[in-house]
Amino acid sequence: xxxxxxxxxxxxKEFLFPHSILAxxxxxxxxxxxxxxxxxxxxxxxxTLGIVGESGCGKSxxxxxxxxxxxxxxxxxxxxGADVSHLQGPARRTFNRRVQMIFQDPYSSLNxxxxxxxxxxxxxxxxxMRPAAQIDARIAELLDLVRLSPDxxxxxxxxxxxxxxxxIGIARALSVEPEVLxxxxxxxxxxxxxxxxxxxxxxxxQDRLHLTVVxxxxxxxxxxxxxxxxxxxxxxxxxxxxxxxxxxxxxxHPYTNALLRAAPEVNPTRRTxxxxxxxxxxxxxxxxxxxxxxxxxxxxxxxxxxxxxxxRAFGKNHVAACHLDTFDPTVTKDTK
Amino acid sequence: MTDTVLSVRNLTTSFRSAAGPLTAVNDVSFDVRQGEVMxxxxxxxxxxSVTLRSIMRLLxxxxxxxxxxxxxxxxxxxxxxxxxxxxxxGQISMIFQEPMTALNPVLPIRIQITENLxxxxxxxxxGRAARARELLDIVGIPDAARRLDEFPxxxxxxxxxxxMIAIALASNPRLLLADEPTTALDVTIQDQILNLILDLxxxxxxxxxxxxxxxxVVAATCDxxxxxxxxxxxxTGTVADVFARPNHAYTRGLLGSVPQAGAExxxxxxxxxxxxxxxxxxxxxAFNPRCTFAGDTxxxxxxxxxxxxxxxxxxxxxxxxxxxxxxxxx
Lengths: 336, 330
What we know:
The structure holds two protein chains of two kinds. Chain A is of the alpha/beta class. Helices cover 31% and strands 22% of the residues of chain A. Chain A contains eleven helices and twelve strands. Chain B contains 13 helices and twelve strands. In chain B, strand 9 and strand 10 (232-238) form a beta hairpin. In chain B, helix 4 packs across helix 5, helix 4 (109-120) packs parallel to helix 7 and helix 5 (125-138) packs across helix 7.
C-alpha cells in the first residue's frame, strides 16, 4: 500500500484494577481490563479511516494510543516509519503537533475560563506557529475556516451551542496545521441537524487541507458516509478492515454483519423483526477463549471456541478475522 | 378507523423562570389509537419529553399544564392526585432514557417489580413473586430467579432497560410511554430492545408513544409520527407518508441530515443554525431563520397546523414548494 502515515502494530493496552494488599498476600493476580488485544491497522496519507464498534470495544483507547495520550503496553505505534513511543523532547512535540485529536464532549474539552482567542493563541504560541504580531490574523482565519463569526474570538465556550463548540475544537486542532486528525465521536453529542453541519465541515476541510482523518464513532451510518476505509472493532481487536463499499456490501465477519443489520435504516419500507445479535458484550476483564465473538455468533463451531482466528485476506485491502470463508448473512442466533 | 385510546388536545406546558414563563409545549394535539406505535420526533428542546411528562403529570410543582388529555373518558389533567396515581404506572406506564437513574440503586430488582405489582394488582405475596419471575422471562432476562435479587448496578445497560420494561409491564398497561428508551444503548442492544417493545405490543395489544430523535428508530418501529419543533407539532402523518413526502422544511432537513447508503462522502443536506432556545423563539414560523423556503409571511405570521387529509397535517406556508423539492430519502 502507498504512503502509510500512521500505523498500529499489534498494539495492546490494559488498565489495571487497584491491587489491594490483601489480594497480594493471598497471592491473587492483579485484575485488568483488556482494552486492546493486539490491534494492527494502517492509515494511508489523505484517507479517512472509520473505526467503528460498540461501547467497550476499545475504539477510544485506540484513538488515544494513536496520539500517544496513552502509552501502549505492547506493540508499536508508527508515524512515518518511526516508533512514536521513543520520541522525546522536540521530536515528540513535533509529533504532537502533526497528529491532533478532537474530543467527543464539546462541554468538557474546552477550558471554560479561557476565551476562544486565548484557547487558539495558546496553541499557536506553544508550537510557535506564527510570530506574535500575526496571531490575531491567524485566529480570524481559523474562525473563518470553521465558519464562526470573527467576534467569536472574544467570547467564552459557555456562550456557544454544542455544534459551535465542536467547531472551536476543530479550529484548535487545525491551528497547528496537523497532517492527521483523530476525531473521537466528534458529533455524537450533537443534535441530528447540527451533526450534519459538522460532518459537512469536516469533509470540506479534509479536501481543502489534504488531511488524513481517523474517525472513531459508534454510528455506522455516519462512518459509512465519511470513510474511505472502515475498521470494525470488537472487544479490543479489529475483526474486519476494508474499503467502505465492500464492507457494507459483503461483510466477511459475522459481527460486522450483525452491526449492519442492527442499525435502523431510514427507510420505513425495509423493516425487519428479527434480532440481529443476541446476548451482550462479554466482560473485557475475563475474555472468552478462541474467537472473542463466539458467545454471540450464530455460526460458531467448535473450532471458534478454542482457536483464535487471525486477520486474513478476503479481497484487495480487505481483511477479516473469521474461520469461515462464507456464511449466510440472514441467519441469526435464536437460542432463547 | 381504529379506536382512539388517548386524546391530547391543546396541551400547553410552561415553566416559571427568572425571565418570565417559558412555554416548552405549545398547543400540542394528537391521538393515540389502540395497538399502534406513535412516534414523537424532535431535537433537544423541542418539547417531546415534556409532552410525555405532562400527560403523566410528572413535572415539577412550578409547571403550568393547560389543555386536555382524555384517557378512558376522563381528563387526566383534572384528576385528583389519588386518581392520577391509579392511572400512572397502572393503565399507563412509562420507561425512561437512562435506566440507571430511573431505577432505585439501593433496592434489588425484585422489590422494584413487586412494589408496582402491589400498587396495581390484587396478587398475594406468592402470586407477586411468581409474576415478577414471569415478567423477567417475558423481557428476556435469563436466569430470572437469581437476577431478581440483584441490584441495578449488577445489570448491563441493556439488561437495566429490560428490567425497567418489566416494571412498566407489571400492571398490564394499555399504553406505554417510552422516552428515548434506546438512546443510551449500543446498536445491537437497541435492536433487541426495539424488537422487544414491538413483540410486547403485538402480544398484549398495548399502544406505545415513542419519543426519539433518531429517524432510523422511527422508520423501524412507528406507525404514525408527529414532528416537533420549538414546542409545537409541525407535521404529522403515517411514517411511510412523511418519509416519502415531507411537507415541512424542517422534516425534510432532518431526513436529509441522516447519512444514507449510496451517497458516501457527499455533503449532507444540513440545516444551518441551531434549534432556538425557549426564551428566544423567533416570531412568525419558529423555523424561519433556518429555513431555505422562508418568505416574508414566514417571518411575520405563524402557520397553523392544517389538515392535508386523514392523518396528515402540516404547519408550513410553503408546503407545496417543500413537496416539490422532494424527499431526501425517497
